[in-house]
């Protein structure tokens, strides 16, 4: 097993996750099987309870693991399926060690950071790195490890020590360190400065790790003299990253590894993206709109679909609170701006969320889309609020609500389990709302559709987690197609649009009964074309 460690210096937010994912893509394009591990030094055992404002989106894996958003990047870039064990946190490591101590596994020894915590980290990495993630038998060839945070952080120290030991454990030729750093440009002189990177590398070396490669971020491409200076003072080669990595890992002469990575698919996709001119405007209505990373997978799914449909994506962010009637009095300018953006939408998307703040604004967004025939996609809570709006507006149940927001509502159209109240489903369907996807018991409503509408879909699950650059989610593909006037073309049997991704993602049940009702079904049908789904 070969290991590539990606660390970061100078400042946080430099793009270690994208760097790690890109390295994985290049190695995969060289013919190697790649897996990934993300290390998060925080004490939480996982990201499930963290606010999106704290850490961005919580990405959900096939096994239900709630993890850092970088694992979503890995899955999208490499088209792999990871598990919760691919995300290591300080909380998980300490919890594992304490559990072993309570069982007596350490035979009465004093438990210390070194060696017990550091050994646990190394053992965890070695164990998880051997698990195949690409659907094939046998262990991967290379494991790319990303260490979260910045070199010098106190909370990262046990991991730095463990990884230093780990480089000796696996031996020369099996460990490559890529350090991501910042090369700032001072406006006063307009010169690219290398000192921050030099100091970061010196600090890394002082902790027992020496970088083999530098990945430098700057506002402009690095000048040749800057590259030469960094190469000289930090003792790293200049350019040709894949060759440098293969050389450090003793892989450059392995028979199955081509000298040049095959990146034609990626370069063609990038070229297509750069040439896009016609736009499609999607309005995102949510409560965490102040931080785009809160909806990262949704944004990526929209981007994948937009490129596939030949459109340049324009996303307008609307805080759901600003749409509410109370905002007209409290923040009139924000209220006016929010409604102006909503009314200029070519498509409306209401993503998942929880809590009652801003819910009324989301209901109003769904109502506007329904009444004005604007393409609409509601995900999780976005589906539930569409049901609430339908109950209030069409079925004349003004008090209709979710028991999450009003436990005493007289018309509980959404309940804790199974969500949409199954007792009210016949009334909904009689009024014109179709429940086209259900679980095998027929009680859990998974997909709603408004047959009289151009495109009005709500889903209880999260299709954004399965979208890939070359295989966009069909539900997002449908939204973009409807918003750009291409839905009929997309639904033609002869359509050469990229094939929809057929795999649903947690938390959709193991079996979903899909009831075909209208032409749009051919799009949604493709989403459920796998062994876990029953077609009727």
Automatic annotation (TrEMBL):
Residue ranges occupied by any Glutamine amidotransferase domain in the UniProt entry: 292-480
Residues of the CTP synthase N-terminal domain: 2-259
Keywords of this entry: ATP-binding, Glutamine amidotransferase, Ligase, Nucleotide-binding, Pyrimidine biosynthesis
EC number: 6.3.4.2
Catalysed reactions, as listed in the record: UTP + L-glutamine + ATP + H2O = CTP + L-glutamate + ADP + phosphate + 2 H(+)
Pfam families assigned to the protein according to its UniProt record, in alphabetical order: CTP_synth_N, GATase
Primary enzyme class: ligase
GO molecular function, one term: ATP binding
Pathway listed: Pyrimidine metabolism; CTP biosynthesis via de novo pathway; CTP from UDP: step 2/2
A GO BP annotation: 'de novo' CTP biosynthetic process
Family annotation (PANTHER family): CTP SYNTHASE (PTHR11550:SF13)
Family: Belongs to the CTP synthase family.
Biological role stated in the UniProt entry: Catalyzes the ATP-dependent amination of UTP to CTP with either L-glutamine or ammonia as the source of nitrogen.
Name of the molecule in the record: CTP synthase
Organism: Oryza barthii
């Amino acid at each position: 097993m070969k290991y590539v460690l990606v660390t970061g210096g100078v400042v946080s937010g430099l793009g270690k996750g994208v760097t790690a994912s890109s390295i994985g893509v290049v190695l995969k394009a060289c013919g190697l099987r790649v897996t990934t591990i993300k290390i998060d030094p925080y004490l939480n055992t996982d990201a499930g309870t963290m606010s999106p404002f704290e850490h961005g989106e919580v990405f959900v894996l096939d096994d239900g693991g709630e993890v850092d958003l970088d694992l979503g990047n890995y899955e999208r870039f490499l088209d792999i399926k990871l598990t919760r064990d691919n995300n290591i946190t300080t909380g998980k490591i300490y919890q594992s060690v304490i559990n072993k101590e309570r069982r007596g596994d350490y035979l009465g020894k004093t438990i210390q950071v070194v060696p017990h915590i550091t050994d646990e980290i190394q053992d965890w990495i070695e164990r998880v790195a051997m698990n195949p993630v690409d659907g094939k038998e046998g262990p991967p060839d290379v494991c790319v490890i990303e260490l979260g945070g910045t070199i010098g952080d106190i909370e990262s120290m046990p991991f730095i020590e463990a990884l230093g030991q780990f480089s000796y454990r696996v031996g020369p030729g099996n460990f490559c360190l890529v350090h991501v750093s910042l090369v700032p440009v001072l406006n006063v002189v307009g010169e690219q400065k290398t000192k921050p990177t030099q100091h970061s590398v010196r600090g890394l070396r002082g902790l027992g790790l020496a970088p083999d490669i530098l990945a430098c971020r700057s506002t402009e491409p690095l000048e040749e003299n800057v590259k030469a200076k960094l190469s000289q003072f930090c003792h790293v080669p200049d350019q040709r990253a894949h060759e440098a990595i293969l050389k450090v890992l003793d892989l450059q002469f392995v028979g199955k590894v081509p000298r040049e990575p095959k990146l034609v698919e990626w370069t063609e996709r990038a070229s297509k993206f750069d040439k896009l001119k016609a736009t499609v405007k999607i309005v995102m209505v949510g409560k965490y709109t102040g931080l785009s990373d809160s909806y990262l997978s949704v944004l990526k799914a929209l981007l994948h679909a937009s490129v596939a449909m030949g459109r340049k994506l324009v996303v307008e962010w609307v805080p759901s609170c600003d749409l509410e009637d109370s905002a007209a009095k409290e923040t009139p300018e924000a209220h006016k701006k929010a409604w102006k953006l909503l009314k200029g939408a070519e498509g409306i998307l209401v993503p998942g969320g929880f809590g009652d703040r801003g819910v009324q604004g989301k209901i109003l967004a769904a109502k506007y889309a329904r009444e004005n025939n604007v393409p609409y996609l509601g995900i999780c809570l976005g589906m539930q609020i569409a049901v609430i709006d339908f109950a209030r507006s069409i079925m004349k149940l003004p008090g209709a609500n979710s028991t999450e927001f009003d436990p005493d509502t007289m018309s509980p159209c959404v309940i804790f389990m199974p969500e949409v109240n199954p007792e009210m489903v016949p009334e909904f369907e009689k009024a014109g709302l179709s429940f086209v996807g259900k679980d095998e018991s027929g009680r859990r409503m998974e997909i709603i559709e408004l047959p009289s509408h151009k495109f009005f879909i709500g889903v209880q699950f999260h299709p954004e987690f399965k979208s890939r650059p070359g295989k966009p989610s069909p539900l997002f593909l449908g939204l973009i197609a409807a918003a750009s006037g291409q839905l009929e073309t997309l639904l033609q049997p002869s359509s050469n649009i990229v094939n929809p991704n057929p795999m649903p993602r947690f938390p959709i049940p193991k079996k979903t009964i899909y009831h075909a009702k209208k032409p749009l079904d051919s799009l949604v049908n493709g989403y459920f074309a796998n062994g876990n789904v029953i077609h009727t």
